[in-house]
Design goal:
The protein has helices at about 10-20, 35, 40-50, 55-65, 95-115, 130-155, 185-200, 210-225, 230-240, 250-255, 310-315, 320-325, 345, 370-385, 395-410, 420-435, 440-450, 485, and strands spanning about 70, 265, 305-310, 355-360, 360, 365-370, 455, 470. By secondary structure, the chain is mostly helical.
């Protein structure tokens, strides 16, 4: 958070995040809850520390590099190539699954400690409302972490009987080896936490804290992932009644952290917080500033970009669309005939500007988690699923036109789709540019690719370096492997590794 204060629980949180086994975090020497949390103020400090565990830069990096959002930059020194992600290499030792698994289970563990400790603290006069709000946020954050890890490690979002992840709603002992739960059980736990959160939360005015709107947004996304489109439509519609699409000026300001018109929830980043710095360049472990996923110094041609915008993404952007201005730095060198370039890497340099920086710090920006445009596109999915793909109202075409009208600032043509596959393809294409570099692409292809006849698709010149040009969504690598950090200490889950690994 901005102006974040130092925490008396910092040692507790660091220990949890660094533990060798992300699930079994109860260790000798750990400060017990009745000592760490003695009053509501201690719980508030613990909650702020819990927020500090949440980060999406690993997801942003993985979705960009493994999927088809970037190309290898002219100033690349091996980033993304040594670990193989750009070549579709994914295994239990890969950085991304280890980072996503560990970070989210550490967050679930700390959230549970706060929840359990709440029954032990002394509540002073007038503090019950504050305690309820702390608990509501903790339940919401635990649900979010469980959903995040679920999104990467289940084979089939819509199959409740398929293996999901490990439910962590209690503090396990150090010697416990926990099995994976089914998707139905995991989703049930997430919904239970969200229902509890909704009953405790007060209205929040800041987009950087868990609120009732966060609960609704997570429910909308989860319902869309599960293919429960009636629910998804209902939740998305509720949010769109309160969060309008940003106009062109607001959209540009949003990525400078100067406008939150359509931001439902974001992770705040500021100078001297725990993510201040370069991070692991080209690694699925990421961390640091979000913009450091793509460049060493700043988001300009002179800022040493080691990843550039993929040509396939760039070719979807219209220079009259504000998303072109937000994502493509003006210093870029754009070849009008890039296919025939003699030296492609130096003649066509598409510098990514999605994270230009804020507070005077290049490459450091807040991480947008839920936005109104995602809710609009979830509604578009629901309509496509129901067969309402064409027409000037109440259709997929009408909603995509609405989004384009906002991004172009002028009335755009109403598209027409030949069938449901064509409509889902249009939704995926629109999500590809609307949510580019925000950590969605791989998951979007996993859940919608088969309905849209889409898979990972790079421009031939972007994949000439290694021949990794495409990947069908039926490939086993559209599910992450259970990481080695969990396989080693957990003898039960070794028998439940995902197919292909």
């Amino acid at each position: 958070m901005k102006n974040i204060k130092k925490l008396v629980l910092l040692a507790l949180i660091i220990t949890a995040a660094a533990c060798n086994d992300a699930i079994d975090i109860a260790q000798p020497g750990r400060l017990p809850a009745d000592v760490a949390f003695q009053n509501v103020g201690d719980l508030q400090d613990g909650l702020i520390g819990l927020y500090a565990l949440y980060d999406t830069t690993s997801e942003i990096q993985f979705n960009s590099v493994f999927a088809d959002e970037i190309s290898i930059g002219f100033d690349n020194g091996g980033q993304g190539l040594g670990n193989g992600e750009y070549g579709f290499v994914l295994n239990p030792n890969s950085a991304a699954p280890n980072s996503i698994w560990t970070r989210n289970y550490a967050a679930m563990n700390i959230a549970t400690r706060i929840i359990e400790a709440a029954s032990l603290v002394e509540v002073g006069d007038g503090e019950q409302a504050q305690l309820n709000d702390i608990l509501g946020q903790a339940y919401g954050l635990r649900a979010f972490a469980q959903f995040q890890v679920q999104s990467y490690f289940t084979t089939d979002y819509a199959n409740d009987g398929a293996l999901g992840t490990i439910i962590l709603n209690f503090i396990p002992t150090i010697d416990q080896s926990l099995p994976r739960n089914t998707n139905g059980e995991v989703y049930g736990q997430i919904e239970s936490d969200l229902s509890t959160a909704a009953g405790l939360l007060t209205t929040q005015s800041s987009a950087t804290f868990i609120s009732q709107d966060f609960v609704t947004a997570l429910r909308a996304r989860m319902a869309a992932y599960r293919g429960q489109y009636s629910l998804a439509d209902t939740y998305a519609s509720q949010l769109l009644a309160s969060y309008p699409l940003a106009n062109r000026a607001q959209y540009e300001a949003m990525y400078l952290d100067a406008d939150d018109t359509e931001v439902i929830f974001k992770l705040d980043r500021t100078q001297s917080d725990g993510y201040n710095g370069q991070g692991a360049t080209g690694s699925g472990a990421a961390g640091g500033w979000a913009g450091a996923n793509y460049a060493f110094v700043n988001s300009t041609l002179a800022g040493s970009p080691y990843f550039e915008m993929g040509r396939a993404v760039f070719n979807l952007l219209d220079p009259l669309d504000i998303r072109f201005d937000v994502n493509v730095d003006p210093s870029s060198i754009i070849s009008p005939d890039y296919q025939n370039a003699v030296d492609y890497r130096n003649e066509d340099i598409l510098v990514i500007q999605k994270y230009p920086g804020s507070e005077g710090v290049p490459l450091m920006n807040d991480l947008k988690v839920f936005r109104a445009s995602e809710m609009l596109l979830i509604k578009a999915e629901a309509l496509a699923d129901a067969g309402s793909i064409n027409g000037a109202s109440n259709s997929t075409a009408a909603l995509i036109k609405q989004l384009r009208d906002a991004r172009f600032g002028t009335d755009q043509p109403l598209p027409t789709y030949t069938d449901a596959a064509d409509a889902f393809g249009a939704i995926l294409d629109e999500r590809r540019i609307e949510l580019v570099f925000e950590g969605h692409r791989w998951k979007d292809l996993k859940r919608l690719g088969s309905r849209a006849n889409r898979g990972i698709s790079r421009d031939p010149l972007d994949c000439a370096i290694n021949g990794a040009c495409s990947l069908e969504v039926s490939d086993f690598r559209f599910t992450m492997p259970i990481p080695i950090i969990e396989l080693n200490p957990n003898n039960v889950i070794r028998e439940q590794q995902n197919p292909g690994y």
